[in-house]
Write a structure and sequence with these properties.
12 strands, 302 residues, 13 helices, alpha/beta, 8-stranded mixed beta sheet
Length: 302
């Protein structure tokens, strides 16, 4: 190893990573329990030491430059490696055990979380997981859950939020439906088909209009506020719906409708309380979810 090449300050790297993930110097300062001027100075010192500009400063806050994006993946890997080293160093001295409650939508809880959480049974067998499958926003501040998976970033300063990527979604229908009703050839054709989805069709109608599909409330022949039920309705051949690529592309009974349409995109945020800083069992589960999401196929990397 070329030890002479290792010359940066880890505190500067932590300040850069926290700023990139929290979105501002002030939020990074809260996350690292320091001050905004300290974070700003550490980031500037890192930029000077590396000879590159990592953030563009503006009234809207710091924005990553191309050089900053290039560095971010490497720094994240370093941060995760540091966490693993810390965990390994104390593994024999302290057995990590206890219950961690994770909440997500019912569809994500059923289709995504089992695979992401499975490695914990080997690495941390003392940690027990309670999955709360709910489409309501669970209140982390009231400790209804330890970790929540959300599609919007919370604005409470008491919470820690990590953007782990974005799901792409598209139009899907079962092969049985397409065989019976025909495959739409244009966006206008889609408006002549049945849809299944949320009980509030307006949530889908507006974005559909934006891509040239004049959908109407009358198109929605069946609905449910459960993502799992909508999934089953689509698989049963009852209509077209919008679902994540990561779930639908491997599913042999479903087929993409108009695959050349631009995909819908929605972010994935992991949210937890400040106890993440002190609770090893929550940290272990949180970090496993971060790794799992970032390794998923069909996920737009954060």
């Amino acid at each position: 190893m070329n030890w002479a090449a290792i010359s940066f300050d880890w505190n500067q790297v932590r300040a850069f990573l926290a700023t990139a993930e929290e979105g501002s110097f002030s939020a990074a300062a809260r996350a690292l329990k320091t001050t905004q001027p300290t974070i700003g100075r550490q980031v500037s010192d890192l930029e000077e030491g590396l000879g590159v500009t990592l953030f563009e400063r503006s009234v809207r806050g710091p924005r990553l430059t191309d050089a900053g994006h290039d560095l971010l993946d490497h720094v994240r890997a370093m941060g995760e490696a540091a966490t693993l080293v810390s965990m390994a160093a104390t593994a024999h001295a302290e057995e990590v055990s206890g219950l961690v409650t994770v909440t997500a939508t019912d569809l994500m809880s059923a289709q995504v979380l089992p695979g992401l959480l499975a490695p914990l049974r080997e690495s941390s067998p003392g940690v027990r997981i309670n999955v709360v499958a709910s489409n309501d926003v669970q209140n982390i501040l009231l400790r209804e859950a330890d970790i929540a998976i959300r599609h919007v970033r919370p604005d409470q300063p008491e919470l820690i939020a990590r953007h782990v990527g974005d799901f792409r979604a598209g139009l899907y229908a079962s092969k049985a439906y397409v065989a019976r009703e025909g495959m739409p050839q244009t966006p206008r054709d889609v408006a002549d088909h049945d849809f299944v989805g949320n009980p509030d069709p307006e949530r889908l109608i507006a974005p559909m209009h934006n891509i040239g599909i004049p959908l109407r409330p009358e198109n929605f022949v069946m609905s449910s506020d459960s993502g799992v039920v909508v999934w089953e309705l689509a698989c049963a051949g009852l209509g077209i719906t919008v679902l994540p690529e990561a779930l639908c592309d491997p599913e042999p009974t479903l087929e993409r409708v108009l695959p050349d349409l631009p995909p819908f995109q929605f972010p994935i945020w992991l949210v937890t309380h400040r106890e993440l800083q002190t609770s090893r069992r929550i940290r272990i589960v949180f970090d496993q979810l971060v790794r799992g999401f970032r390794e998923m196929d069909k996920l737009v990397r954060a």
